[in-house]
Write a structure and sequence with these properties.
alpha/beta, disordered N terminus, Rossmann fold, 39% helix, 13 strands, two-stranded parallel sheet, 14 helices
């Protein structure tokens, strides 16, 4: 007998467990966030947070005032040594290297609202005559500067006005020994440059100059390669020797005696240029080469044998001005602030060089002696002495390339710059601190 399913109406029908959701209200996706913000003053907190964030970004985006070195006698003597590049120059020579170590910005442009990041720069020979003025400019620009100097010819007094500045470091070190640093740029100025020191060293310690120019340059190029820094070599007009071309262009290969008394310096610098270009071609190091012509100004060594410092010191001491040979050999003299401007433009630019950096104004030694007489003592005597070996007869730079590619040319004439140097020498020789008025007059002229 088969089974049968019966329905009894009196029995309760089983209830269903199925769920039926409420119908979705229109505009719920819009009204719910609004109701959420309006409850418990949440909207007020949002506006307060926005205001605080805006204030923080505004404060931190404002550039702090640059460090100004304590007052020194050179503040009035050399106003150009603590000035900034014009905005046009910064834009013209902007590159990735201006943004700081390890920057990946290929355009070199600083994003809107952000301040320029200071570079970390090492200056070898930074306590010397030219190096110390370069350090002044870099510090004033907001960079962190590491001075490396063994004080063979450099003087701690040249940079001591930066002591206490957190952006300044001084390392007593000889570049012939390796040095490990993390930097963005390397200005390689280390090497005695005066003829008196060069000849003395070549006779007493003949390997010193070669080691500085060769081993020292190798060490600094190796550092540039390891950390990806840009490297600037300060070469010299001495690479032209006793030139047969006048004025001298960068394409001229020179007329140098490789075994003369001056060759330790001349050939050392020529070798340094060779090494610099080899590292550029073989290792991809970014390099710059400057060939510096005669430079003068405050902080020069008083008795270093250079003609301008010789004449100025002799005139101040009431000694005869010593002219070697017939006095008809010519030189060109640039003021130190002009040279520093050229070096910085070369470093920030996109051209390797070499570039002649000098003042094309040409003077014979007798004409220079006359200018010194006019500036210091009209009664100063001139004394002739036998000429030195391999002394170049003519020296004048052709700076057409620097004018065209760097937008650089010297601004300070000899008659304007010489009084500034005289004031510095007078203070250092005699301790005369009453030269402010003379300096201001010379600067305004």
């Amino acid at each position: 007998m088969g089974s049968e399913l019966l329905y009894r109406g009196s029995e309760t029908q089983p209830s269903s467990d199925s769920y039926s959701p409420k119908p979705v209200k229109p505009w719920a996706s819009v009204t719910r966030p609004i109701h959420y913000l309006l409850r418990e003053q949440r909207l007020l907190f949002v506006f307060v947070g926005i205001a605080i964030a805006t204030l923080i970004f505004t404060v931190f985006a404002t550039s702090p005032a640059p460090y100004v070195a304590p007052h020194s006698r050179f503040t009035t003597l050399i106003p150009d040594s603590i000035t900034y590049f014009p905005i046009e120059t910064q834009q013209k020579f902007s590159s990735a290297h201006r943004l700081g170590f390890g920057s990946a910005n290929p355009t070199g442009k600083i994003p809107l609202g952000l301040k320029r990041k200071g570079l970390r720069i090492v200056v070898t020979g930074g306590a010397g005559f030219v190096g110390s003025h370069l350090v002044d400019r870099l510090i004033a620009r907001g960079d962190s500067v590491i001075v490396v100097d063994n004080f063979f010819t450099g003087r701690k007094q040249n940079v001591m006005h930066h002591f206490g500045n957190p952006n300044f470091e001084l390392i007593r070190h000889d570049v012939v020994e390796p040095l490990l640093l993390e930097v963005d740029q390397i200005y390689h100025l280390a090497c005695p440059a005066s003829p008196h020191v060069n000849c003395f060293v070549s006779l007493t310690k003949p390997c010193v100059l070669h080691k500085t120019n060769v081993v020292g340059t190798l060490n600094m190029l190796g550092l540039a390669k390891r950390v990806g820094a840009r490297f600037l070599l300060t070469s010299t007009s001495e690479v032209y020797g006793d030139p047969l071309q006048h004025p001298q262009k960068e394409t001229y290969w020179g007329n140098v005696n490789p075994i003369g008394v001056r060759s330790c310096y001349d050939e050392g610098k020529r070798t340094a240029e060779t090494l610099t270009m080899d590292y550029h071609r073989g290792a991809g190091v970014e390099v710059r080469i400057a060939r510096i012509f005669n430079t003068y100004g405050p902080r020069m060594c008083i008795d270093d044998g250079r003609v301008v410092s010789n004449f100025v010191a002799q005139a101040l001491r009431k000694e005869p001005l010593t002219v070697y040979g017939d006095g008809k050999q010519t030189r060109s003299f640039q003021y130190v602030s002009d040279l520093v401007e050229g070096l910085m433009r070369l470093m920030e630019g996109e051209h390797i060089g070499p570039f002649n950096l000098g003042n094309p104004g040409e003077f014979t030694m007798l004409e220079l002696a006359e200018v010194v007489q006019e500036t210091i003592d009209p009664n100063a005597k001139i004394e002739f002495r036998p000429n030195t070996e391999d002394d170049p007869h003519k020296r004048k730079p052709d700076i057409s390339r620097a004018k065209e590619l760097l937008g650089w040319e010297p601004k300070v004439s000899l008659r304007k710059g010489l009084p500034l140097m005289v004031s510095d020498f007078r203070q250092r020789i005699f301790g005369d601190h009453k030269e402010g008025s003379n300096t201001n007059n010379a600067s305004s002229s």
